Amino acid sequence: MGLTGIQILGMLPKKNCKECGFPTCLAFAMKVAAGQADIAACPYVSEEVKEKIAEASAPPIRTVKLGSGDHVLAIGGETVLFRHEKRFEHPPGIGILVTTGMDEGEVSSRIEKFKKYRWERVGVKLEPEVIAVEDKDGDPAKFSALVKKIREEAPEAVLVLMSDKKDVLAAGAKECGEHKALLYGATMDNYKEMAELAKETGFPLAVKGDSLAETARLSEELMKEGLKDLVLDTGPRGVRELYEDQVIMRRAAIKKRFKPFGFPSITFPYRYANNLVLEYMIASVLVAKYAGMIVLSDFRGDLLYPLMVERMNIFTDPQRPLVVEEGIYPINGPDEESPVCITCNFALTYFIVSGEIEGSRVPTWLLIKDTEGLSVLTAWAAGKFGADTIAEFVKKSGIAEKVKHRKLIIPGYLASIKGELEEELPDWEIIIGPREASGLPSFLKEWKAA
Ligand code: SF4
Q: How many whole angstroms from 21 Cα to the centroid of ligand 1?
C-alpha cells in the first residue's frame, strides 16, 4: 500500500521553508501521497527516505519501457482493476509476427502492413507499435539479418526478439543497439543465461512459464538475479486459461501486492485461434483484461481498426474528456464572405462537425468555444455554452476582422437562446443551424452572406 500524507510528513524535516514550492511540509506531503509531487523536490530529505517513499508509491505493476528515442513504448504501470476507479495508464502494445521461416516477400509484406495501418480518430493516432521477430531454426546469422532488415525498414517498430537460445537472441540484440527490445524468453531451463543476456544488454526480459505457478517461480528467481524489468507469459493452454491468468495476475498484483506478478504481460492470441476473426476477438478481450502486449499473427485492416478503436476508448481517462483547443478553424479556405459556425470543444463534436463541413466543400469559418469538453446541450445546461459566454467568446475571438458580414450560425439544439444571443451581440444576426451535423452540407450550400 502507498504511504499516507501523514506518514510521509513524519519523514520530512518539518522546516516549512517552502523550498519545495509548497507553503508547508504538510501540504507537500499530501501532494506526494497523491502522486502529484515528487519527493525529490525537498532538498532536505535523505536518499534513504527518498528510496523508501519511491518504493512505497511505485505502481503495483511495474512500468516497463521498450524502444528508444521518439519510439518508446511503455507498458504496465497499472494501479487499478477497473477503469472507472481511476484510469488505465498504458495501452497494450499491439504487434505483428515475423519469423525466420517466412520468405522475403512475406516478411516485406508484413513490414509494409505494419507501416500502412495507421489512422487518426478524434485527434488520436491509432497505430500498431510492435514487430515480434521469431527464430524458427536456431541460426543466429539468419535471425540477426532479419532483425537488421526490420530495424532498417521500420525503425519506429518496438521489437520483441523470440528464441529460446541465448546466442540467437544475443545476435538479434546486437542489431538493436540503443533500441531496447524485449527478450523472449526465460524458461525454467534457460533463465540463468537469459538473465545474463538481459543484464549485458539492459533489455527487459520476458518470462515464459508453463503455468501461473511456474511463472511466479521464474519471476521470483529473476528478481533475485537483480532484474527489474520483466514481462510475463504464463503459457496458458486455452482461451479460458489465458483470460483467467490475466485476471488472476492483475488481482494478485494490485490487491495482494504479490511482487512476482507485478509486471505487464505479453500474449499471443493466435495460439488459441484457427482463423483471424477468432484471433482478433480474443485480442479484443485481452485489450480490456489485461494484456500489456498483444502479438497478432497478421494484420488485416478491417479487424485491426476496431481493435485500435477499442484500445483507444478503454485507455482514455474517464475523468478527462477529449477536447480540442478553443479558436477559429478555417475549413476549405474561407474568405470574408464565408459562413461562420460555432460549436463546443468536445473532440467528437469537433471532428464530426468539421468532417461534415469539409465534405460539403463550402469554405467556412468554424468557431470552437471552450466548454471543458462538454457536448452542446450538456455545456448549455452547465452554463458553459449560453448566450453570455458565446457572446464574450465571439467578441474576443477576432472573427469580426475576418468576415464582412455579421451572421453567426449556432447549433440547432440552441435555438432557444437566439433572442438572448442577439441581445448580447447586437451587431450580429443569429441563424439557427441544423440540429445534426449531417444537415450541415445542404445547409451551407444554400448559405448567402448578403
Ligand atoms: S522543502 Fe522540505 S522542509 Fe521545506 S517546506 Fe518543503 S518539505 Fe518542508
A: 8
* Predicted pLDDT at 33: 82
pLDDT at 450 over 60: no
Pocket lining: 231 vs ligand 1, CB cutoff 6 Å: no
What number of other Cβ atoms are within 10 A of residue 347's Cβ?
18
Q: Whose CA is nearest to atom 6 of ligand 1?
A: 20
9 C-alpha to ligand 1 centroid (Å)? 10
C-beta of 42 in contact with ligand 1 (< 6 A): yes
pTM of the predicted protein model: 0.78
Residue 44 in contact with ligand 1 by CB distance below 6 A: yes
Q: Which three cell numbers stand for residue 104?
A: 522475403
Q: Which atom of ligand 1 lies nearest, measured to the CA of 28? A: 7
Our answer on whether the CB atom of 12 is closer than 6 Å to any ligand 1 atom is: yes
Q: What is the pLDDT of residues 142-174, one digit of tens each?
A: 999 999 999 999 999 999 999 999 999 999 999
What pLDDT is recorded for position 241? 97
Model confidence over 222-263: pLDDT tens digits? 999 999 999 999 998 999 999 999 999 999 999 998 999 999
Q: For residues 443 and 434, what is the distance between their CA atoms, to the nearest angstrom?
A: 7
If you take atom 7 of ligand 1, which residue's CA is the nearest one?
Answer: 25
Supply the angle between the helices 239-255 and 212-224 in degrees, to the nearest 10: 50
Q: What is the CATH number of domain 63-314?
A: 3.20.20.20
In the chain, domain spans: 5-57, 63-314, 327-445
pLDDT given at position 313: 92
CATH number of 327-445, picked from 3.40.50.11600, 3.30.559.10, 3.40.50.1000, 3.30.1360.10: 3.40.50.11600
Ligand 1 atom with least separation from CA of 24? 5
CATH class of 5-57: mainly alpha
pLDDT of residue 120: 85
With pLDDT > 70 as the criterion, what percentage of the chain qualifies?
99
